[in-house]
Design a protein that fits this description.
alpha/beta, Carbamate kinase, VC0802-like, Rossmann fold, 8-stranded mixed sheet, 26 strands, 23% strand, globular
């Protein structure tokens, strides 16, 4: 049970807390409390008030964290006293005393471990633990704070550590709202939302819970309820996606003000490695300067992205230092429509555009995922945008079901989602379902016949993408590495050349023999293992690095593959993936999979970036980097490596020529006078994710 600053600020609030705690005993539950600092800026022990004591004097971040943590400690002690006065035995804990360890980052630390021995001892002694939120301790004993709103994260982390039945976040509002009521008069309390929706709302600007807390709820499946301390409103239940069925296309609309947009001229032609290299220089320089990028989109010779307006000058200096030209636009807002029900439902973006055109809103940029659509708009039109989307999607009335046709599509999508969830459960019993077995058999047959071609392939054996992947996973001496679906062994060899102890695994014996020969030709002794990517024959936490390159589009169950990666990775381990990716729209993705299967029947499915990110997050991996780059491909080579005949080449060319605009834009094929494709660009994703310690 987490209680916010307004709940602990006065006697009325603390009496309400005592009543809440007493009620949990009557329900035969065991309460554990987390508290924030009392009140808001100006109140004696509010965090901002405490920090204002030293703001005019030189100080350091360690001392600021020491001072900032005091407010929550005061609250914990006072609430424990109030509970005892009400006849409830209680004991106060600082974050350190509660066993909360962090990564040591001052001012914005992440929880890395919790050792709840003292909490369990208090519970066993019949005492109610009252924990100071917002804080923990680094390995060297320094007090660290978790960032504004960090008491939410404390509560969720404690909930996970104690295997709690539910985390209740008690505040001064009735629950999670469909929009910011200060920007939309029609905002209403939501009854049930998914953890994914809560996470997207939090990261899109909604002031509901601390974003890391929402991420914890998403990754752990821990039920969270947001409700008022002061009334009996049931509030908002945040539940895991397996037990949640969206009843509407969209759930809420969030916004972030103070946004700027930059357009950077990369000085290189789109679709070339030079273009990707220029992007990478920008990404790295911005990261090194502490500038976080959002809504980044390369198009033509430009890279466009949004950033917080208060770092625009710093970003401009970075771009100038790279010798690149740029344009910038201040005074924007990012408004995000959130809803787990929009995935796979056609027409959602069209309806967003119609709503905003009708409201006279200018859209500068759009970004989307399976559960969000974000638009960049002038700041002065932010409230108009929020109200237009709220009304247009009937968020205040329980959610848009636009017409019988769209309603049936949404219901079908929900039913399909339920079927997929059941199918995943069925597959967890084994790997012998017929479709998966058929795909594996096709992979073994086709790749077992083409080992020499893949060993000789320059696309697989070298390139800046291979160098980048090896660099990102930090291969080095003594590192334990696993390369999954190694093929002819090029990625495994690159890891070995960096000093790693590598096991190269593959589904086909012929490929493993080719990999062994490749290793021997470079003076290395290969360690190979026949293995299915969905059922790895290795112990838990066996590897520091796991890689998979240009193969996962063959896997029949990508989510299971990533769960296996997470299982065999040691805490802090790194997962590096490179694979062909699909566009985010379903029509373009289906066309691309169709023509890939003409060339190679063992192809299963190319995933969009957002789906890889979701799968990694659900496997409790933290995505650190996800970048798309485009590899130029000669059509004749690409088809010859699979011995495709003239009829197959003509069919692929026809599919691309007649496909949806999104597929054409994604691959940008050039055609000869005979109507056959001559060359195209192959979109690849490089993703780096880490396993939390």
């Amino acid at each position: 049970m987490k209680f916010g600053g307004t709940s602990v600020a006065d006697e009325k609030g603390r009496a309400a807390i005592a009543a809440r705690v007493q009620a949990t005993f009557e329900m035969d539950l065991t309460p554990v409390l987390v508290v924030s600092a009392m009140g808001r800026n100006g109140a004696p022990y509010a965090t901002d008030t405490l920090l204002s004591l030293v703001e005019a004097m030189p100080t350091d971040v360690r001392e600021r964290d020491m001072l900032a943590s005091v407010g929550e400690v005061v609250s914990a002690v006072l609430v424990a006293h109030e509970l005892r006065a009400a006849g409830i035995d209680a004991i106060a804990f600082s974050g350190a005393e509660a066993g909360i360890l962090t990564d040591g980052v001052q001012g914005n630390a992440s929880v890395t471990e919790i050792h709840p021995t003292a909490l369990f001892a208090a519970i066993d002694a019949g005492k109610v633990p009252v924990i100071a939120g917002f804080q923990g301790v680094a390995e060297d004993g320094r007090i660290t704070t978790l960032g504004r709103g960090g008491s939410d994260t404390t509560a969720c982390a404690i909930g996970v550590a104690l295997n709690a039945a539910e985390v209740g976040i008690y505040t001064d509002v009735d629950g999670v709202m469909s929009a910011d009521p200060r920007a939309c008069d029609d905002a209403e309390v939501l009854t049930v939302i998914s953890a994914e929706e809560l996470y997207q709302m939090a990261r899109s600007g909604a002031r509901v819970v601390h974003t890391p807390a929402a991420e914890l709820a998403l990754s752990s499946g821990l039920p969270v309820r947001v409700r008022s301390t002061f009334n009996d409103h049931e509030g908002t239940l945040v539940t895991d996606i397996a037990s949640y069925r969206p009843h509407a296309v969209a759930t809420s609309v969030s916004h972030v003000d103070g946004v700027a947009r930059m357009r950077v001229s990369l000085g290189a032609t789109e679709g070339t490695l030079g273009h990707m290299a220029a992007q990478t220089r920008v990404y790295r320089a911005m990261a090194d300067a502490g500038v976080s990028l959002d809504m980044f989109t390369p198009f033509g010779d430009w890279l466009v992205f949004s950033i917080a307006e208060n770092v625009l000058d710093r970003a401009a200096e970075v771009i100038h230092g790279l010798g690149l030209l740029h344009q910038s636009h201040r005074g924007l807002s990012k408004v995000t429509l959130v809803g787990a029900g929009m995935h796979g439902v056609p027409g959602v973006m069209a309806h967003v555009a119609e709503c905003l055109v009708a409201a006279g809103v200018d859209i500068y940029q759009v970004a989307d995922s399976h559960t969000t659509i974000s638009v960049l708009v002038p700041a002065e039109q932010s409230a108009t945008t929020i109200s237009a989307l709220h009304a247009g999607f009937d968020l205040g009335d329980g959610g848009l079901k636009p017409g019988e046709e769209t309603t049936s599509v949404a219901e079908s999508a929900s039913a399909e989602s339920a079927g997929q969830a059941q199918g995943a459960a069925d597959r967890s019993e084994g790997l012998e379902d017929s479709p998966a077995r058929d795909i594996r058999d096709r992979v073994k047959e086709r790749f077992g016949e083409r080992t020499a071609e893949y060993r000789a392939s320059a696309v697989h054996s070298s390139g800046e993408d291979l160098e980048l992947l090896v660099s990102l996973v930090q291969a080095g001496p003594g590192v334990r590495a696993l390369d999954i679906a190694t093929g002819a062994g090029h990625t495994a060899l690159a890891l070995a050349e960096a000093g790693a102890h590598v096991i190269a695994s593959d589904l086909t014996e012929q490929m493993l023999a080719e990999a062994s020969d490749l290793f021997a030709s470079h003076g290395f002794e290969a360690r190979t293992q026949l293995a299915d990517a969905l059922d790895l024959p290795f112990e838990d936490e066996s590897f520091d690095i796991v890689t998979a390159r240009m193969a996962p589009h063959h896997f029949p169950d990508p989510a299971r593959f990533v769960r296996e990666v997470a299982r065999v990775l040691a805490p802090g381990g790194r997962f590096g993936l490179e694979d062909q990716v699909a566009p985010e729209d379903a029509a373009g993705a289906e066309t691309i999979d169709e023509f890939e299967k003409v060339r190679d029947p063992s192809h299963n499915r190319q995933l969009p970036v957002s789906e890889w990110q979701r799968i990694a997050t659900e496997a409790r991996l933290k995505v650190q980097r996800a970048e798309i780059f485009f590899k130029p491909v000669e059509f004749d080579w690409w088809t010859s490596i699979q011995n495709l005949d003239a009829e197959g080449k003509a069919r692929i060319s026809a599919l691309l020529a007649s496909g949806p605009e999104s597929a054409l834009e994604w691959y940008q094929p050039s055609f000869g006078e005979d109507g056959l494709v001559q060359r195209f660009r192959s979109p690849h994703l490089i993703l780096l994710a880490t396993k939390t310690k």
